[in-house]
């Protein structure tokens, strides 16, 4: 079984990176294969709502970095989506990916249906609940199972690496990863 973790942060090794790496470490300890994808160096354009995906099932008409990421997401058994909070919401690059993945999936075979996954969110101070809910909606509308933890999978930090000092946040992410592994093994 494999989990793909996607970072929507424009920073290659910011706080989102550190939180996702903690989750992947725990998933590996639980015997799962993992893959990390950062959107910081990828071009994923916003959805044009052209609905070409309704004709070309499981494919988006736009030519950018979307399709290889979507295909990796579709092959995975579990998904983690990480984002810092930017003015009370997820980053535009992560939302562009999820909007297009949602359209392509729902117009096609929905490879995410009944898979497991969760958002992970980091902020300097506020907006984590809004962003967590925003991302959570995507998992739910895709028909996915979302495990819980000891709290919402969020952490706080400003400078890259600060979130690793948020002991409760790191523990919450680790517990989420344990629960994700447990759920995935039960679903298999």
* CATH structural fold name: Rossmann fold
The residue fraction in helices comes out at: 40-55%
Number of domains: 1
What is the mean predicted local confidence, pLDDT?
Answer: 97
How is the main sheet built?
A: 5 strands, parallel
Secondary-structure content class: alpha/beta
Q: Order of strands side by side in the largest beta sheet? A: 2-1-3-4-5
CATH level-1 class = Alpha Beta
Number of helices: 6
Order of helices and strands: EHEHHEHEHEH
Strand content: 15-25%
Q: Which value, in Å, is the CA radius of gyration?
A: 15 Å
> Which spans have pLDDT < 50 for at least 5 consecutive residues?
none
The beta-strand count equals 5
C-alpha geometry: globular
Give the N-terminus to C-terminus distance in angstroms: 8 Å
Please identify which CATH superfamily we are dealing with: Flavodoxin domain
From the coordinates shown, what is the CATH architecture?
A: 3-Layer(aba) Sandwich
Summarize this structure briefly.
By secondary structure, this protein is of the alpha/beta class. It is built from six helices and five strands; from the N terminus they run E-H-E-H-H-E-H-E-H-E-H. Helix content is 43%, strand content 16%.
